[in-house]
């Protein structure tokens, strides 16, 4: 549903340091906020004013909340109260999806077609790109995969962990130099196999947790 506390098509989720849960509901174009116990707190629109949006990913920033919008090809910036602040990425992003923040450096990672674009601060200054698709990146490494589609991203301990929907795997990049470190998983239904992975996150010990969409399961 679209009433308070109801969801129509949930996509992204983020948790603040106080335990509040922010859920992207694409069906109602809203962010719904819940307590750690699951009680409804508030909701707000995902776009700029009454502008239509196509929200996907969400991340907690020290100033507030960041939400990717594939309709306008931007990242919308909100305070945690839901107050709209601004946006960045116009003319740089094409169809943003996943988003993650490195709180130590205020670095923002956004999945966008064949690469992950790296921004600094809520004003969205483009700093770097982690390439997926047959492109030489600024650091000279070369990644040549046939049909990549980065979906969601998580960041921890100097690495960016990215789910690749088309290649049925998770790719780990070194943030500092943009180099692909390793590839986790391959297409399949057995334990360790992946089929169109979507969400990805890391636990406190660094384990990678993947929403294995095609196999309808979560793998650690």
UniProtKB/TrEMBL annotation:
InterPro entries: 6-blade_b-propeller_TolB-like, NHL_repeat, TRIM-NHL_E3_ligases. NHL repeats lie at residues 1-37, 82-122, 181-220. It comes from the Eukaryota. The keyword Membrane does not apply. Keywords: Repeat. This is Peptidylamidoglycolate lyase. It comes from Branchiostoma floridae (Florida lancelet).
């Amino acid at each position: 549903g679209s009433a308070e506390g109801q969801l129509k098509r949930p996509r992204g989720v983020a948790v603040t340091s106080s335990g509040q849960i922010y859920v992207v509901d694409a069906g109602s174009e809203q962010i719904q906020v819940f307590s750690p116990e699951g009680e409804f707190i508030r909701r707000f629109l995902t776009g700029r004013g009454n502008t239509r949006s196509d929200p996907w990913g969400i991340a907690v920033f020290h100033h507030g909340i960041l939400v990717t919008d594939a309709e306008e090809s931007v990242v919308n910036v909100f305070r945690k109260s839901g107050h709209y602040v601004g946006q960045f990425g116009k003319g740089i992003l094409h169809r943003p999806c996943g988003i993650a923040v490195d709180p130590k450096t205020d670095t923002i990672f956004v999945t966008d077609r064949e690469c992950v674009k790296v921004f600094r601060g809520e004003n969205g200054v483009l700093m770097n790109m982690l390439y997926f698709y047959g492109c030489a990146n600024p650091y000279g490494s070369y990644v040549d995969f046939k049909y990549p589609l980065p979906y969601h991203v998580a960041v921890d301990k100097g690495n960016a962990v990215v789910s690749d929907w088309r290649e049925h795997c998770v790719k780990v990049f070194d943030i500092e130099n943009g180099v692909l470190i390793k590839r986790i998983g391959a297409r399949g239904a057995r334990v360790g196999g992946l089929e169109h992975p979507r969400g990805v996150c890391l636990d406190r010990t660094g384990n990678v947790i993947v929403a294995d969409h095609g196999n309808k399961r979560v793998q650690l």
